Amino acid sequence: MTVRIPFHPNCSDQSMLNSTRPFIHRPHTLWAAMALVLLGAGAVAIAADRLPFVKRPKLPPAKVTPAPAPGTPQPGAPLAGLTAAQLADFDEGREEFQAVEVPEGGLGPIFNHNSCAACHTAGGVGGASTQTVTRFGRFANGRFDALAQLGGSLQQAKAIDPAALEHVPREANVTTRRVTTPLFGAGLIEAIADDTLEQNARKPQPDGVHGRVSRVLDVASGKQRVGRFGWKAQHASLLAFAGDAYVNEMGVTSRLFPQENAPNGRLDLLARFDKVPDPEDEVDPDSGKGDIDHAADFMRLLAPAPTKPPTADSLAGQRLFENARCVACHTPTLMTGNSLVAALAHQTVPLYSDLLLHDMGALGDGIDQEVAKGRDMRTAPLWGLRLRPAFLHDGRAKTVEAAIEAHDGEATPARQRFQAMKPTERQQLVAFLRTL
Questions:
Q1: DSSP states of 66-77 as a string?
Q2: Residues 6+ away with beta carbon under 8 Å from 124
Q3: Which comes out higher in pLDDT, residue 51 or 325?
Q4: pLDDT band at residue 50, thresholds of 50, 70 and 90?
Q5: CA of 43: how far to CAs of 56, 84, 113, 235, in Å?
Q6: Rounded CA gap, 251 and 113, in Å?
Q7: Rounded distance between C-alpha atoms, residue 425 and residue 431, angstroms
Q8: SS3 state at 240
Q9: In sequence order, which residues have a C-beta less than 8 Å from that of residue 232 and are 6 or more positions away?
Q10: 222: DSSP letter
């Protein structure tokens, strides 16, 4: 039996206020008592064992487009070679990724958007976008303070009630924007062994380039791992990456991140507006998965964006890219290791990144996060670059040329070689990047 809960218009997103779409539901036992009432006396026997697991309320996306077929040369397709069960996991994860959170299901009280797909759209579901978030903190006496007691370092720009809206506190003297990172091929990145990244970090590189691994505590496994997701390589696994996004971008707590964000650190506002028990995303005892697991499944099984056929100009540009020693950081390929998913195991990954942290000088965003300092940034993978609407961590660069020109720190010599090229050579190098 499907239980439908009336929508409560208590959200800053006007499209949701005007919505007449029915709920879809994700797991939450908060609604179990209502289900028992509606199901009647027949549910008593079930309740004697355990309460029925009722999905928490959500809205379906305004527009649903089917995923491209496996092996289709379109962004947003699942990996080729998946089993029927894995394709089912991909489809269920894709549905979860596009579902729209509502306050009754745990959205907020502060958040940046109400759906994963709202910020991952460019080229297809799972892509990048021009959506940005604000990070802030304070740098003084040679130390960075994330101002966590004031809601830092991430500002949530929306709230289910205007009284809960966050602002950048006056104590902050560092602010930056970050754009959404694309997720195409994320499962292949996850499947690269920690040892591979550590070995690459030990390899000598020209021009004083020295990448270092971001060693983090992976909350999904409870182990120290090498980070590779996020602008600061702050997550090692897609499950941890998903859990972080749910709580920090949508305000949905889970078993990995069970604590809600208080608006600018104010516990009184949290108590006033957070009415859904934590964790809001609970694990379905039948499947053993919560919503963060389904979202991680989608990301893990998402194929890389297809490349464009090479041309004479792009092939010449590839040689120029290598000769400029851009490959010192933008490593053309890495290999995956063992994986429970055969389609991810022992694969060549043409991501054009070493996934390491580098001192980028003035291009750094000024924010310390995990082991990354303010000048440190993870080498952004270049695969799928042609689908991105903006470049660099804050989206400031609207062209590939502008992004290269902004490189600093360890990338200065490579940038200078690009600047010394003839105009036709620069065009060829960009033509190569536009095939990725």
A1: PPPPTT-SSTTP
A2: 68, 74, 75, 76, 184, 387
A3: 325
A4: low
A5: 19, 34, 37, 42
A6: 9
A7: 10
A8: helix
A9: 214, 357, 367, 369, 370, 372, 376, 377, 378
A10: T
Q: Taking a C-beta distance cutoff of 8 angstroms, is the pair 229, 219 a contact? A: no
Residue 61 is classified by DSSP as P
Cβ neighbors of 290 (< 8 A, separation 6 or more) are 27, 254, 255, 281, 282, 283, 284
Dump the DSSP string for 328-375: GTS-S-EE----SSGGGTT-EE-------EEE-GGGS-S--BTTB-TT
Residues in Cβ contact with 17 at an 8 Å cutoff, skipping those fewer than 6 apart: 9, 11
Number of Cβ within a 10 Å radius of residue 240: 24
Consecutive H or E run containing 58 = strand 55-59
CA 315/CA 432 separation, integer angstroms: 7
Report helix, strand and coil shares of the chain as percent, to nearest 5. Answer: 35, 15, 50
Nearest CA-CA partner of 269 in 245, 251, 255: 251
Closest to 108 (Cα-Cα) out of 166, 31, 149 = 166
Q: Is residue 382 very low, low, confident or very high in pLDDT (cuts 50, 70, 90)?
A: very high
Token duo for residue 337:
């290791």
CA 424 to chain centre: 36
Whole-number pLDDT of residue 33:
44
8 Å CB contact between 104 and 264:
no
The type of residue at 387 is: L
For the entire predicted model, the pTM comes to: 0.89
**What are 323's two structure tokens?**
């000769």
CA distance 200 to 331: 9
Q: CB of 263 within 8 A of CB of 238?
A: no
Residue ranges of alpha helices (H) inside 156-221 are 186-190, 194-202
CA pair distance 44, 53, nearest whole angstrom: 14
Partners of 349 in the β-ladder: 334
Pairwise CA distance, residues 404 & 293, whole Å? 36
d(CA 334, CA 213): 15
Type of residue found at 118: A
Identify the bridge partners of residue 215 per DSSP, sorted by sequence position: 226
Give CA–CA dist 107/13, Å, rounded.
Answer: 11
**Cα(433)–Cα(61) distance, rounded to whole angstroms?**
33
The DSSP code sequence of 287-313 is TTB-HHHHHHHHHHTBPPPPPPPP-HH
Asked if 280 contacts 106 with a C-beta cutoff of 8 angstroms, the reply is yes
